[in-house]
Amino acid sequence: IHTTNQDRMHIVAILKKYVLDTRIRAAIAISTPVHLSDASKALLKSENVLYQLKFLYSLFSKIRAKNKNFPDQISMKPWWKIRNLYDFDEYYTAPLFGYSSAEDYYAKNQCIQWLEHIRVPSLIINALDDPFLGDLCYPFDEAEGSEIVSLCAPKYGGHVGFSKNGVERDWILEKTWKFLTNAG
User: How far apart are CA 160 and CA 4, in angstroms?
Assistant: First the structure.
C-alpha cells in the first residue's frame, strides 16, 4: 500500500486513539515524519529543492481545482507568497483546518507526542539518510523507553528507498515480515 507522510502520521494517531479491531496485532510506519516541524525544516535544505518544486507543483494543481469549486473558501491570493512547503502549510493547510499557523498545525498533529500511548506492537523504520526527516524524526528515546514501539534507523534507505547492499530491494520486506511474524 502506498501512503503519504500525512497518511502515515494519521495511522499512528489512530493506533493511539482507537481500538479498531482486535485482529490488528501490529503496525509498521516507514519513512514517517514523526516530528512535523523538524521534517519541514529538513525539506528547506538546498538539496531538497527538487522535492519542494515537485510537491508545490502538485499542490498548486490541487489548490487551483479547489478554488474553481470553492472560490469563496479557497483563495489564490496567498499562492504568490509561497516559496516552499512551510509557506504552503502557513497560508493554506493551517488556516483551512482551523490552526493559527504552520507551527500550530505541526505541534498539534505530529505523532511523536502519541507514541507512548500506542497499544499494539509498532515498528518505525526511518533511514538516517532520509532527506525528508530532521534529527527529531528519529524517536530513539521514546522507543528505548517503550515495550511496544520500536525504532529501526538504518544508515541508508533514503525516503522509502530501502534495499539490501544497495541493490536488492528485499531488505524492507524481510524486516517488516520478521516484525509482523514475531509480533503476531
Answer: 11
Model-level pTM?
0.81
What is the CA 118 to chain-centroid distance, rounded?
17
Return the sign of the alpha-carbon dihedral for residues 154, 140, 86, 46: negative
In this predicted model, what pLDDT tens digit does every residue of 107-138 receive, in sequence order?
Answer: 999 989 988 888 889 999 999 999 999 999 99
Helices (H), the chain: 5-17, 36-43, 49-69, 85-88, 94-96, 102-109, 140-144, 171-183
The three three-digit cell numbers of residue 152, written as one number: 529501526
As given in the structure block, the three cell numbers for residue 173 are 520486506
Which candidate, 118, 113, 125, places its Cα nearest to that of 152? 125
Provide the 10 A C-beta neighbour count for residue 113. Answer: 16
Q: Yes or no: say if 126 and 151 are a contact pair by the CB < 8 Å rule.
A: yes
The number of beta carbons lying within 10 Å of the beta carbon of residue 54 is: 10
Contact present, 146 and 15 (Cβ < 8 Å): no
> Can you say how many angstroms the Cα of residue 8 is from the centroid of all Cα atoms in its chain?
6
Residues 6+ apart with CB under 8 A from 150: 121, 122, 123, 124, 143, 179
